[in-house]
Design brief:
Elements: E1 2-5, H1 26-39, E2 48-56, H2 64-77, E3 79-90, H3 97-105, E4 110-116, H4 120-126, H5 132-145, E5 149-155, H6 162-174, E6 179-184, H7 192-199, H8 207-223, E7 227-230, E8 233-235, H9 242-248, E9 255-256, E10 261-263, E11 267-271, H10 275-283, E12 289-293, H11 296-309, E13 314-315, H12 316-323, H13 325-340, E14 344-347, E15 350-353, H14 355-358, H15 361-369
Parallel strand pairs: 1-2, 1-9, 2-3, 3-4, 4-5, 5-6
Antiparallel strand pairs: 6-8, 7-8, 10-11, 11-12, 13-15, 14-15
Helix pairs in contact: 1-2, 1-10, 3-5, 6-8, 11-15, 12-13, 13-15
This protein binds iron/sulfur cluster (SF4).
């Protein structure tokens, strides 16, 4: 279960997620999240919820009582397993010592902390709301109270040298966290970052440097016992995020809140990305969503896309069983060139990306799945 909290203190320059910097509608929105949980209680009938993930936006803008109110509703209307993973995405500026201590007493048992960088210049360039001191202080306190912590870092930031990147990784490692998520800075359309780059205020991102920094990351974290179980996610064994893994393994999920996506195995749906429209619709007991039924080709394409990003790869047996021999042969034929270039390889009955291919997995996947077989 994914719950989207669409509020942030300020807009990070690179971000294209759905959020509002006005908290005026926070109370009404929380009521509507609970109402949506109620309205959709039959969607996952007879299925167990293994993980609840508060993402955003900035979920740590909610108080413990507000988070508790939403978790109560999840327990009221759904079958939650005995020891669910309950994650809160949190920003360092919200995580004072007392908040961390209060969260540690709640049902939230995993924190995903948006550190992004331990350099003031990077944080300023990205317009993050926190500073380095807050980042270090919150990690110091959080690791005293939570065992399951993930740190988010960003690489490929203009001006971030390889040496500085290594220092960022080492600083995160010094806190002994069992999970690290790292993303290449991406210039999304209509973001402030795109405008600044176009105006020459900020240098453009350098894809080759980003790839170098990804390689540094993989080498450094693997040497420390982390598994790069998905392109952007590194976990110690037993600490892979259940929430993230569910997406990559094609499990059904329920997305609550504005802009949240859901998937039931056959259909994908997404809520409106507008807080006012979302609230109005839910208050009228109408789901503000659009639904798409996935074709066989859609499902094949999605499996290739997600499979190639993960350590589990693409199962050729699954392709044959679920999609038929024509799809399997097509995939093998299309993969040949990448296998020759050492970007993909076959291990037993699986198609996987090599270390060199992983950073390029999205591009490789899209060239494998542009098909329309009947
Ligand atoms: S805090 Fe997160 S969701 Fe909010 S603007 Fe920054 S990156 Fe986007």
């Amino acid at each position: 279960m994914y719950i989207h909290i669409p509020f942030c203190k300020q807009a990070c320059h690179y971000c294209d997620f759905h959020f509002s910097t006005s908290l005026k509608k926070k109370e009404a929105l929380i009521q509507c999240l609970v109402q949506e949980l109620k309205l959709r209680k039959n969607e996952l009938e007879n299925q167990n919820i293994e993980t609840i993930y508060f993402g955003g936006g900035t979920p740590s803008l909610l108080s413990c009582n507000e988070l508790d109110f939403i978790i109560d509703a999840a327990y009221k209307y759904y079958n939650i397993v005995e020891h669910p993973e309950i994650t809160l995405e949190a920003n360092p500026d919200d995580l004072s010592d007392s908040v961390i201590q209060e969260l540690a007493k709640s049902r939230i048992n995993r924190l995903s902390i948006g550190i992004q960088s331990f350099y003031e210049s990077d944080l300023k360039l990205m317009n993050r709301a926190h500073n380095v001191k807050e980042a270090l202080k919150c990690l110091d306190e959080a690791t005293k109270h939570f065992d399951n912590i993930s740190v988010d870092l960003i690489y490929g930031i203009p001006g971030l040298t390889n040496a500085a990147w290594i220092k960022n990784i080492e600083t995160a490692l010094a806190f002994n966290v069992p999970h690290i998520s790292c993303y290449a800075l991406t210039v999304e359309p209509k973001t402030a970052l795109e405008t600044f780059i176009k105006k020459g205020v900020i240098a453009n991102v350098d894809d080759d440097l980003a790839q170098e920094q990804f390689n540094i990351l993989v080498d450094t974290l693997e040497a420390e016992g982390f598994v790069n179980y998905e392109l952007s996610n590194f976990g110690k064994p037993e600490y892979f995020s259940k929430n993230n893994s569910a997406y990559w393994l094609g499990k059904p999920y329920l997305g609550i809140g504005p802009s949240a996506h859901s998937f039931n195995g056959d259909q994908r749906s997404w809520n409106v990305s507008n807080n006012t429209k979302y609230i109005k619709s839910i208050q009228n007991n109408t789901l503000p969503n659009e639904i798409e039924t996935l074709s066989k080709t859609d499902k094949f394409n999605e499996y290739i896309m997600t499979g190639l990003r993960t350590v589990w790869g693409v199962s050729l047996e699954k392709i044959e069983n679920d999609f038929g021999e024509t799809y399997k042969n097509y995939l093998l034929k299309q993969s040949e060139i990448y296998i020759q270039e050492h970007l993909l390889y076959i291990d037993g009955n699986k198609l996987l990306t090599t270390k060199k291919g992983k950073f390029l997995s999205d591009g490789i996947a899209s060239s494998l799945f542009k098909i329309n077989l009947s």
